[in-house]
DNA sequence: CCCCAGGCCGCGC
DNA sequence: GCGCGGCATGGG
C-alpha cells in the first residue's frame, strides 16, 4: 500500500467484494416504461427527497407520487403545492421539499439539461446544495462528479485519518480514482452501505472488511 | 424518553 | 468564511 491512491482503490475493491454491486441509483424502470416518463426525473426527485432523510421514508413518498402518477417534472410542476406536500409528507421537511422539487423541476426541464447544465448553475437553485447537485450530475447526468456525504466524510476520517471540507474531499476522490462513471457511482453507494453496516457512528470494527487498513484502533 | 437518517438555508459573528 | 438552529417524518 504505497500511496493513498493504492489504498483507495484497495478499499473500493474490498467493499465491492464484500457487498457486491449496488446498482445505484435505485429507480423503478417498469413504472417509467409504462408511463412513458424519464427515469432520470425520478433520480432528481429522489435526490431532493433524501436530504437528511432515511431512504425508507423517501420510498414512501416516491410510492405516493407513483400512485398519483406524479413521478415526473411535468406532473410536479402541474400540482398545487399543497397537493405535492401531501404526497411527499413521509419524507419529512415536506414544505421545504415541495418548493425545492418545483424549483429543480422548473430549472432542469426538459431533463436532458442534466447533460449540459453547469454545476454552478445547479448550485444556484434554492435547495440544491453540493451533495444534491453532484448526485444529480453523476446519477442522472452521467457526469464525473464524486458525491460526498456525511458517511463518506466519516469513513475517510477513520480509515485515512484526515478530514476536509466538501470540495477538497471531492477533489481528493476525483484525483485519486480512475475517471470512470461506474466506479464513481458504485464507490459512493458502497461507502453508504459500509457506513450502515459497520462504520456507524459507533463503529462495529469486528468483522469490518477493511479494518486491516484503517487508522482507527479496533472497537 | 432519546437519537438518527444518503442536507440545506438563513442568520449572526 | 464558519457555526448554529430550524425544518419533519418514521424507526430503533
Task: Describe the protein in words.
By secondary structure, the chain is mainly alpha-helical. The chain has 2 domains: 4-23 and 145-213, Orthogonal Bundle (Endonuclease Iii, domain 2); 37-140, Hypothetical protein, domain 2 (Endonuclease III, domain 1). Helices cover 60% and strands 0% of the residues. The protein has 12 helices and no strands. The protein has helices at 4-19, 29-35, 39-49, 55-67, 73-78, 81-88, 94-108, 119-124, 130-140, 150-160, 166-176, 181-197. α3 (39-49) crosses α4 (55-67) and α6 crosses α7. It is elongated, with a radius of gyration of 18 Å. The relative contact order is 0.13. The chain binds a DNA duplex (13 and 12 nucleotides) through α3, α4, α7, α9 and α10.
Name the features:
DNA-binding; 2 domains; 219 residues; mainly alpha; 12 helices; Endonuclease Iii, domain 2; Endonuclease III, domain 1; elongated; 60% helix
Amino acid at each position: 500500500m504505497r500511496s493513498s491512491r493504492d489504498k483507495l482503490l484497495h478499499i473500493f475493491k474490498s467493499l465491492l467484494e464484500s457487498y457486491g454491486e449496488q446498482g445505484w441509483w435505485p429507480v423503478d424502470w417498469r413504472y417509467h416504461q409504462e408511463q412513458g416518463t424519464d427515469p432520470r426525473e425520478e433520480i432528481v426527485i429522489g435526490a431532493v427527497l433524501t436530504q437528511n432523510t432515511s431512504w425508507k421514508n423517501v420510498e414512501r413518498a416516491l410510492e405516493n407520487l407513483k400512485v398519483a402518477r406524479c413521478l415526473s417534472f411535468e406532473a410536479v410542476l402541474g400540482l398545487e403545492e399543497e397537493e405535492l406536500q401531501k404526497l411527499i409528507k413521509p419524507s419529512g421537511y415536506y414544505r421545504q421539499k415541495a418548493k425545492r422539487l418545483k424549483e429543480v423541476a422548473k430549472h432542469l426541464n426538459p431533463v436532458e439539461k442534466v447533460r449540459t447544465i453547469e454545476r454552478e448553475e445547479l448550485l444556484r437553485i434554492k435547495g440544491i446544495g453540493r451533495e444534491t447537485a453532484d448526485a444529480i450530475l453523476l446519477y442522472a447526468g452521467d457526469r464525473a462528479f464524486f458525491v460526498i456525504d456525511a458517511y463518506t466524510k466519516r469513513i475517510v476520517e477513520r480509515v485515512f485519518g484526515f478530514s476536509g471540507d466538501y470540495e477538497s474531499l471531492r477533489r481528493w476522490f476525483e484525483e485519486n480514482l480512475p475517471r470512470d462513471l461506474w466506479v464513481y457511482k458504485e464507490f459512493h453507494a458502497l461507502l453508504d452501505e459500509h457506513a450502515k453496516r459497520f462504520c456507524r457512528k459507533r463503529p462495529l470494527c469486528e468483522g469490518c472488511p477493511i479494518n486491516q487498513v484503517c487508522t482507527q484502533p479496533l472497537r
